[in-house]
Every structure is written in C-alpha cells, then in structure tokens.
Amino acid sequence: MAQLQVKIQRTETNTKTYDVTHSPDMTVLDVLEEIYHHHDETIAYRFSCRTGLCATCMMMINGKPSLSCMTIAEPNDEGYLFVSPLPKGKTIKDLVKVPAN
Amino acid sequence: METINTDVLIIGSGAAGLAATVYAAQSGQNVLVIDKGAVGKSGSTTGAVQIASLGDWSDPRDNEDAYRNDIEESGRGLSDPKLTQTLAHDISERLQDLISWGLKLDVDEQKEVALSATSGHSLPRSISARKGKTGLGILQTLIRLVKKSRNVKTWSDVITLELVKSSGRISGAIVYDLRNNLPYFIESTAVILATGGIGQLYPVTSNPVQSTSDGFALGLGVGANLVDMEQVQFYPVSMVAPRSIAGFCISFYHYSKLYNSLGERFMKNYEPENMEDTTRDKLAIAIANEVVAGRGTPNGGVYLDGTEAITQIKKEFPHEYELCLDRGIDLAKHRAEVGPAAHFMMGGIQIDEHAASSVPGLFVAGETAGGLHGGNRLGNNALSECVVFGARAGMGAAEMSLKGMNSDHTDLEEWKDKWSPLFSTTKGKIRPYQLKQRIQEILGEHVGVIRSDKGLQQAKVQLKDVQAQLAEVNIKKDFMSREILDYIEVRHMIQTAQAIVGAAYMRKESRGAHYNTDYPSLAAETQKTNVQFSNGEFTFHTFAPKGGVS
C-alpha cells in the first residue's frame, strides 16, 4: 500500500497534514474515515448515503466543490490531497457546515 | 439541564419523520423535528428509487385488495392485516397530497405516469419521481412545506439518549446536542420515532451511516413491544466490490442473470419458474447458499450479468448504471460481483393502524415500526409505508397533544448515571468505533442470511462481552465529536443487536428472511416473536398473530 499526503484545512489559520495508507480505489471519504480511525479522532466531516445522493459530504477537494464519497482520492499538482470546507455558509468545525435548511 | 417544550417531538427526518411533521403541523400544534445529522438528508430515504402506488395511473386490474394481497402473500403470515389494509387504503390519498404539494412523477414517452413492474407485486405499480431519485423528490417536497410552517422547528446534529416516561406515558426525550456538547430535556405530549433502520449492525449494508438502530433501543428503553426482530431483509443483489460502493443495491436483478463461479445460472435449482425475478428473501438465501457451498466469487458473492437488458437498465436505473461505471464496472460489458447486504428491518416497534405503540404517547413510523411487511418486504413498499404511517403518526400525535394529555412533573434523576461516560473523564483504551466494528463482525458471522442455533448462542455470549467492554471506552470530548456520536450509537446498537439475536433464537423454523439451518422449513403454526426490556432484562416470547400469547 502506498502513502498519500493529505492536508486538511481545519480553521482559517490551521491546516493539518496526515500521511495516510492509501490504495487507488479509495474515495476521499474513505481517506477521511482512515484518518478518523487511525490518525485523529477529533476530525469532523459529514456524510450519509455514500452513493452520491444526499450531498451532505460536499467539500472542497483540491480546490473544487465535490462530493467526498464520489471523488477518488488523488494528489493535486503539488503532490498532496487538499481538503477544506465549502466557502459558503457557516463552518461548525473542520469540514462540517451548518445545513442549508 | 435546560428543558425545551413542544407539543409534538419527532425524532428522525427521513420520509416518515417529515411526513409526520407536515401532517402534525396542519393541526396548528407546535412541532419540533430533530435529527442526529442534517435534517432531511440523513436517512435511508435518499437512496429510495421508486414507490409502490395506487392512483389514476394504476393498471385497471389493480386495487386496494390486490395490493394488500401481495403484501400479505410476501409477509409469510407475519404481516398485520390492519396495517396492510391501512397502507393499501391510504396510499392513493397520500400520493395525491404529495403531487398537490409539487412532487412531479416521472412520465413515459406518451407523457403518462411511468409505471413499472417489481418482483413480488402481481401488477406493475411502481412509480418514480426525479428520474428515479424518488426518495430525494419526496424529501424536497416535504422540506418545502416544513420551511413554510411557522409552528415547526427543525434541529440538526442532536441525538436522542433516551425517551422519558412519567405516570405510564411518554413525557419527552433526553437529547444530546453534538454542536455544544450539552444534554437537553425536550418535554412533549407525544413523541414520534422515525429513526430508520439497523443496517450498521452488519459489516456490509446498503444503509446510510446513520442507520444504527437508535429507535428500536429507545423503544425498548420505555417498555415498548417489539415484534419479529429476527426478520432482517438482506438485499440480495448488492455490490460486493469495490469497497467504496460495497452494499450499493442493484435494482434491476429481475432483468439480469446470476451465475456462480462454475458459470451455472444457479437460480434454476432454487426457483425454476421465476429464476432471478423472485422475492428478496428467496434470492438472498439462494446466493448465500452458493457462497457457503464454495461456488462464490473471489470477494464472496456471485456474478450479475445485465448485458442483455442494458438498454432498459440505462433508461430505468441511470444512477445505478453510472455509479458502477464511475467505479470501473461497465455493466454493458462486464459482470458485477454481487451479494446480500443488510437492507431493511421488517420487525420493529409494534404499532396499531394509527401508528401508536403500546406505550401511551409514543408513535412510530417508517422502518422503526414493525408488523406491516412481516417476513419479507416487497420492493418499493418502504417509501409507501413512510408516507402513509408518517402521516397517521403525525395526525395521531397532534390530536393527542390537542387534548392536552400532559403528564405530571417528570423525574429526571437516573438518566445521568446511565450516561456518565459522556460527562466524566474516561480512562479506557477502547474507542467506540471499535465496538461498533465488533458488533458488525458478530452479527455478520452469526446473524446473517444463514443462521443456526449454535451461532445465535455464540452471538449472544459475544454481545455480552461487547456490552462489558463499554465500561472500558475512551471518549475524546470535543464539540461535533464523532467519538461521542459513536459512543451513543454503539449503546443503541448493542441493545438492538441483543433483541435481534434473542428473537431469532425464539423462532424455531425458517420463515421469510429468517433461515435457520437447524430448522430449514416452515413450522405448522404461524407465530410472531415479541421482545420487551424491563428492569435491565430482555424478555422474549412468541404469540399467534391474531392475539393470544402461546
């Protein structure tokens, strides 16, 4: 298994780096689960259906708004996967936004 | 602890919870709907493809009796006739309401409502909205109304710890707000449980991550009757690989062919007449048997070949085709590895035709309720159940609160001791998610499609071990903490898992989704199983379907 460097923007001033065991079939959501299970129990992100329908796992992935369950985890041009919260609306913690309702 | 007052509290915001919300709100009573995730986006409803229906578009031969007969036939003697009658009677009116509120049904080339056939339904009666994203369409329709209702409040990211009873009736719920890490007492005249199912008790499931069986545990906690909890539907044809979509349901198995590793179309040995176009219980048992006999695929499934029907598949189930394509499986060219995944709890909290449980003030709707589907739920009856019984629960709860049946002052002393790990420092070494995984392993191994008395006994002992390990957890305290959520969920999971195992052990036969190799056939007499929990102990018994405890 290869390693993937993952940077998560946790606040506007704090971006944390994780080196995650990675296989090519992993989605960004799989990577976040790996981080929660084995690297950092405080990381917060939403998800529900895992099949691209509920849209609760929407976040910025390598600079683009994407569903983490539908996006294969790949490094950006700088060699790491960069994940940050959606810019619009209030962020509760890490990647979790206040729901649009 | 702060107290929040409402007339009707609704726990869960899928199709059942939101239908309950809308109909309860029509009474003018104050309604509060809470969800442990994002309201309106965190349940199984989002994945629902179609809904069984009666309406102007129905086949001329279709009617309430035909629909009802299909459900009862499929229920293997365990469906409650009062509930099947209610579903068949109300569905047309509920769909008319949804249409009048803006739900647009999918149409065919002739601009008529598109009607399709589903295994086990004697006539085509499945309809869809939003191009096969019917659950989403219904949720959006209901959410629009919720937003307009001034007497409805919604609250996301708040999970229920326990229901509270006072003088024998429900007086509210103790909840935990994950955003600020604080408990609240929500005082209400009536509570509606609509928390969905149990899929996360198993290692492979079609269900969302939130399906951790909370409602069943909450009902057990206040002494509700739960029926037929051994009846867990395994969706027979779910993706086995790749892991990112493991558990994803394939709806077009009736247009496809299934092969074992020997290249044999094995359904000819089980259901020579209907082949793959059979009910989910029979198909799941056949596939599990093939795998156990060593005729499975490398990842423990069987092969699904949809190439001959690919045009129809692409047209009717575009989301399924495209998601598989995205993960490297082009069903137009390749076979997929499929197998059973935990999909639906047919048992649950016993309700009457008004969606009222045995506990005064407690209403239950959707998957958390038991008794409608009996031993096998037919396809597309989950959404119809949600809208019919959600509406009935909402109306019943509102009527009760209008009568002002308030309970006396509620005594809230004991609950905090029971949940002390949330409020004190924990020093253990086990993380809550590890206990969840352990429960999944146990149920996957012993309480899956194929069961035995020995396996069930092992599961019972192993679950006791997991329960003991709850004292050794470490919970990292933080706001929006997944650790806290996992801890609360694993507490609900262990309760429900024990109820399932105990009920399964009571059923000394194979009926519906419950298949025990020690008793491979139907017993002469039909019995339902019942679970209750009081004074820290489970009690299990069986009873004849039309009253009378055996």
UniProtKB/TrEMBL annotation, chain A:
It comes from Salinibacillus xinjiangensis. PROSITE patterns: 2FE2S_FER_1, 2FE2S_FER_2. Its cofactor is [2Fe-2S] cluster; [3Fe-4S] cluster. Residues 4-89 form the 2Fe-2S ferredoxin-type domain. One of its GO terms (molecular function) is 2 iron, 2 sulfur cluster binding. Pfam families: Fer2_3. Belongs to the succinate dehydrogenase/fumarate reductase iron-sulfur protein family. It comes from the Bacteria. This is 2Fe-2S iron-sulfur cluster binding domain-containing protein. InterPro entries: 2Fe-2S_ferredoxin-like_sf, 2Fe-2S_ferredoxin-type, 2Fe2S_fd_BS, Beta-grasp_dom_sf, SDH/FRD_Iron-Sulfur, Succ_DH/fum_Rdtase_N. One of its GO terms (biological process) is aerobic respiration.
